[in-house]
Specification:
about 350 residues, alpha+beta, Rossmann fold, 2 domains, 6-stranded mixed sheet, 5-stranded antiparallel sheet
Length: about 350
């Protein structure tokens, strides 16, 4: 991977009236990295991307691209290209004309324009589509044209503004793999915005989890998933079954004060806690009996979700769900059963 930072954010801030959209964000992206800004609506990820692209003005901090400050420059003077959710293609221009637009705006010689357009059409697997208009393309083909148009100008940083969110699931999966392939082959620097954890995990060199305008954790997808920095990151990345309990003298109680039949291998200190376990890490039957931590619960109902079944259970006023693949124990509504999990799969946070 080439050395040096393609992009640096230093204490970047943006306010909209009394709302702090981006709050002292610092980020360094090496050349060739693919970094995803991940978070719920209102977390500041899109505002951060727009600040990088020059579509919003800073209220504080600095932005550098290839070591040069750009926060005072308009979008067209920054070495970036943005792929929008809609694709934003010119409807009256052909595929080739759409792709060539940025090159011509940069004053590239016509002979080189033709060569680069032909080459990028091969890269995005759209050879033979050069003379078609956007109305003659599928949604996925339009997004590949938008990707080609941005890549062909060879910007220092490619910005992806949730480009897959308007597509159906099958097409999103295909384009997700396509972008990953292109990044692996070409090695462009990318900043990708999404609220979809699956996209972030599958595509990224690193994931920056954002909440209320701040980065809560930035690391490889594996570390963000397995070593979350705090409760927000744990619950946002992947699904979680949560047991909010009060511990007193080693016993557990629900919000109503009723005792909860919970046995923990490592007792928690007295106080209010939220115990989180991934639903696939919860076990039934013989596996539960061998687990380090156990809870006696009542079965409520089951959902068939393709590769697994999701069992919903209750313990007092606590509700959680258990994902079971393949064979499963027979569970009738109202049946009592034991659920178990190991310490390594559990996170406990004070309320």
């Amino acid at each position: 991977m080439p050395q040096g930072y393609a992009l640096e954010l230093r204490g970047v801030r943006r306010r909209f009236g009394s709302v702090v959209a981006v709050d002292d964000v610092t980020l360094e992206v090496e050349k060739g990295e693919f970094v995803t800004l991940l978070g719920p609506s209102g977390s500041g990820k899109t505002s951060t991307l727009r600040l990088i692209g020059g579509f919003e003005k800073l209220d504080g901090g600095h932005i550098l691209i290839d070591g040069q400050r750009v926060d005072h420059l308009p979008p067209y003077s920054r070495d970036t290209a943005t792929i929008f959710q809609s694709g934003a293609l010119f409807p009256h221009k052909t595929v080739a004309q759409n792709i060539a637009y940025g090159l011509r705006m940069r004053g590239v010689a016509e002979a080189e324009v033709a060569t680069r357009v032909h080459g990028i059409l091969d890269v995005v697997r759209l050879s033979g589509y050069a003379d078609r208009y956007p109305a003659q393309l599928s949604g996925g083909q339009k997004q590949r044209v938008a990707l080609a148009r941005s890549m062909v100008v060879q910007p220092a940083v490619l910005l992806f503004d949730e480009p897959l969110s308007a597509l159906d699931l099958s097409l999103r999966m295909q384009l997700r793999a396509e972008i990953k392939r292109l990044h692996d082959e070409i090695g462009f620097t990318g900043i990708f915005v999404t609220h979809d954890q699956g996209e972030a995990m599958a595509m990224s060199s690193r994931v920056a989890v954002m909440d209320r305008g701040r980065i809560r954790q930035i690391d490889t997808p594996e570390k963000v998933f397995h070593e979350p920095a705090d409760e927000f990151v744990f619950t946002f990345i992947g699904e979680s079954s949560c047991l909010p309990v009060r511990i007193a003298a080693g016993a557990a109680f629900d919000a109503s004060g009723a005792p909860v039949p919970l046995k923990l291998a490592r007792p928690l200190a007295d106080g209010e806690w939220r115990i989180h376990v991934r639903p696939f890490a919860l076990k039934f039957g013989e596996q539960a009996a061998r687990a380090e931590n156990r809870l006696t619960a009542t079965h409520s109902f089951v959902e068939f979700l393709g590769q697994f079944r999701r069992h919903h259970v209750r313990a007092g006023d606590l509700e959680l769900f258990v994902d079971v693949e393949g064979d499963e124990p027979p569970c009738a509504p109202g049946a009592s059963l034991e659920i178990g999990w190991n310490d390594a799969d559990m996170r406990a946070y004070r309320r």
